Amino acid sequence: MTTGKVRCRACNLEFTAELTVIKNHAKSLKHALKVKALPNTTITAMFNKPETSLQTQSKIAEIKITGFLTEHNISFNSAEHLTSLIKSCFPDSKIAQGMSLGRTKAAQISKNEIGACAEEEIITYLKCNKFRLIIDESTDISSVKTMCICVRFFHPKVCRVQTLFWKLLQMFPVMNQRKQIKVLLAKGYMKKYLKLFISVHRFHQKTNK
């Protein structure tokens, strides 16, 4: 069995591909000096590269498209189709070709970026102006009660009174099964249910006999 050869790029030396030889070469003074002379490039530095202006402009375009979809109440399912349409319409645009926007990304941008910024902007206005709360409760198709909170105040940008959506709160948070059982046990409902179940089960056993 022949042993292969390996080359050290730092020292530009070729030697036998044995673990002992490689370790001894790595510990040598010559190799240490050569490695120190190399540019310090780590894996983290390779991934944390600064964004170019083109990438930033593509991200700005994605945020604007998401804002358009949100403002006009267009389904996020059309985001991917719209992005591919823009790319086909503007093949010479590097910004358009750099966009990557689907329904999941559009939903996250709308919730975590646009929504968070809009909420912070409203907070700054409410701190400096008098406002009124408008509250309305409703029940959705799954029988979950929610409360919609809107704020009405004088908007300094548009110079008129506006009513803006603030938050949608759940009146009774959905509990998991264990919490529901604990609540039922605390109220004594589970004991009544178990007694009823046992009595019905015994009745069926007697009738089957």
From TrEMBL:
<protein>
    <recommendedName>
        <fullName>DUF4371 domain-containing protein</fullName>
    </recommendedName>
</protein>
